[in-house]
Design goal:
Strand content: under 5%
Helix content: 55-70%
Radius of gyration: 22 Å
Structural class: mainly alpha
Low-confidence stretches: 1-24
Number of helices: 18
Shape: globular
Largest sheet: 2 strands, antiparallel
Distance between the termini: 63 Å
Length: 436
């Protein structure tokens, strides 16, 4: 079977040329420019992430453990069934800094993880995957993706963005410079030991290695395989977690989740199912119809798309299936009931929303007839308008972190302080030690 490229009228070539060398033309000035633009765009979505940085959720947990047990010990401590190497490294670095600047460090780690996928996508490394305008468009859609406010610019959710970067590395042509090779190995190695995504990435790594059959893709597959093999051991070392409230899975629930948390927000900006709650028959009809049409379109793109597009859709499907199989959305009600609610568990919808965007952009460029292409182009325009309309995200609640820093400094050695953090209701405890 011939490889179908995004590039028009380009025939596949031998493994010694494209895709190994076609993406090796350096464009550092363009990459830096796009990187700065993407960074400015990310910061503009929520200025408080940089101007009024505060801890977010597990930030406090990682810093508290690093402060109490030491960096090296916590580096190999699993949490939730898997390792968190990136935030553990950041927490270790934070021990060398004043507490007042630690939230900014953590937020910058989150922004960096969020920034790397669009930069990598638009770099020369991915030149053989799609034309530059298509990749810039996808990069903008990534930066402006709606319905994911709680994973924007914070370190605990950086693992989701790092997983996207790992996927792009697996799909990229082989590096032709030591710097590119070092980056790929470092980022991929970090990604497979940060979060549970090594298992989700493994099918993609195997598919790419079997298709291209060059040494470098096998090396990347081996790195992912190592991360997947490590997962059972981290699960064994972690305390078993019961799903609070039970799963509550059902076919109507599945359709409502997929329709209103994945498909609708891409073209509407938010989950608007609450507006139809007073009309349950209409709500069911809309959820079934949107799910059927959306999955039908994604299936068509999966069957007709290039290997890279197929792998992206496959990865998103695996991540969504894993998220629905063992979610953590509520502490007191069935999980699938909580998953249907607006604003619930934004992290679970990033990958499938990106898959929808990739599918629509692919149809706009490659659909077999003019009507389908015209409709897809119109949908791309809708996505761009929605991204702009829902660009601004809620600022972090000001919990007066500075007052707690002052109180911590005033504590005697051995004294304790409980520090509230975002989102409201979260907190962490610090014990004053010599040198603090």
């Amino acid at each position: 079977m011939r490889h179908r490229s995004w590039l028009p009228n380009v025939e596949p070539t031998s493994p010694t040329t494209s895709p190994q060398t076609i993406g090796n033309k350096p464009t550092p000035a363009l990459t830096i420019t796009l990187g700065l633009l993407f960074f400015a765009a990310l910061v503009s979505r929520s200025l408080s992430v940089v101007l009024r940085p505060q801890f977010w959720a597990e930030d406090g947990f990682f810093y508290e453990q690093a402060h109490a047990f030491g960096f090296l010990h916590t580096l190999v401590m699993p949490h939730g069934g898997y390792l968190h190497t990136l935030p553990r490294l950041a927490a270790g670095l934070a021990l060398l800094l004043p507490l007042s600047v630690v939230p900014l460090l953590f937020n910058m780690v989150g922004l960096l993880a969020q920034l790397l996928p669009p930069i990598y996508l638009c770099s020369a490394r991915m030149q053989s995957i799609a034309p530059l305008p298509v990749r810039v468009l996808l990069g903008f859609l990534y930066v402006g993706v709606p319905n994911v406010a709680k994973i924007h610019g914070n370190m605990p959710n950086a693992l989701w963005h790092l997983a996207v970067l790992c996927l792009l590395i697996l799909l990229a042509p082989s590096p032709q410079s030591p710097a590119a090779a070092i980056f790929d190995v470092t980022a991929l190695s970090l990604g497979v030991v940060t979060g549970p995504f090594a298992i989700c990435l493994l099918p993609v790594a195997i598919i790419v290695a079997r298709r291209r059959r060059d040494l470098w893709t096998k090396v990347r597959a081996a790195i992912v395989c190592f991360g997947a093999i490590l997962m059972p051991f981290t699960i064994i070392l972690s305390p078993r977690q019961q799903i609070p409230g039970g799963l509550g899975a059902s076919f109507p629930g599945f359709c409502r989740i997929v329709a209103f948390q994945v498909f609708v927000p891409v073209f509407r900006g938010v989950n608007n199912s609450a507006q139809l709650a007073k009309h349950p028959v209409l709500l069911s009809f809309v959820s079934y119809a949107v799910t059927a049409v959306g999955l039908g379109v994604l299936s068509y793109v999966f069957l007709r798309g290039s290997m890279e597009v197929r792998c992206f859709l496959l990865f998103a499907a695996i991540v969504l299936a894993a998220s629905l199989a063992k979610p953590l959305a509520s502490a007191n009600e069935p999980q699938w009931v909580a998953l249907q609610r607006q604003g619930s568990t934004h992290r679970y919808w990033l990958m499938p929303e990106l898959a929808v965007a990739v599918a629509v952009v692919w149809l706009a460029a490659k659909a077999p007839n003019r009507i389908a292409r015209a409709v897809s182009v119109a949908l791309v325009c809708v996505m761009l308008i929605v991204d702009v309309a829902y660009w601004r995200l809620p600022d972090l609640v000001d919990l007066h972190f500075g007052t707690y820093i002052a109180a911590f400094k005033a504590l005697p050695i051995g004294g304790h302080i409980q520090i509230p953090i975002n989102p409201p209701g979260w907190s962490f405890e610090l014990t004053k030690k010599p040198g603090d």
